[in-house]
């Protein structure tokens, strides 16, 4: 739902590269400079905020978390109410109470 790339949208829209080169962000999840996303992942101001403040690694954590949310709430990705709930969950995950990783958290190793 949030991770799909689109080839016909305007820059700054989900799935469209926001700039020509790679960028780094001070990740809100990890608290350090890390590679940022290559595109705006969500519509509206929240998508831009995520692009500006969330690293690629933190986005991977969100994708896994969002799968759990979709399954637990049995959401239909085509339902506008599901989009609203996912937006609220994303806001909470990155910028709310759920923003801090547990102390001692170690990110899983990337699969080769």
Please, could you describe this protein's structure?
This protein has 112 residues and is mainly alpha-helical. The protein has a domain at 24-99: YggX-like (Orthogonal Bundle). The protein is 38% helix and 5% strand. The chain contains 3 helices and 2 strands, in the order ββααα. The chain has helices at 44-53, 56-72, 80-95, and strands spanning 24-26, 33-35. A two-stranded antiparallel sheet has the order 1-2. The longest helix is centred in the middle third of the chain and has 17 residues, at 56-72. Residues 3-11 have low confidence and may be disordered.
Q: Based on the structure, what is the oligomeric state of the protein chains?
A: single chain
Unreliable segments of 5+ consecutive residues: 3-11
Shape: globular
How do the helices and strands follow one another from N- to C-terminus?
EEHHH
Number of strands: 2
The helical percent reads 25-40%
Strand order of the largest sheet: 1-2
Keywords:
mainly alpha, YggX-like, two-stranded antiparallel sheet
Helix and strand topology:
Blueprint (H helix, E strand, L loop, with lengths): L23 E3 L6 E3 L8 H10 L2 H17 L7 H16 L17
Antiparallel strand pairs: 1-2
Helix pairs in contact: 2-3
Short description:
The radius of gyration is 14 Å and the shape is globular.
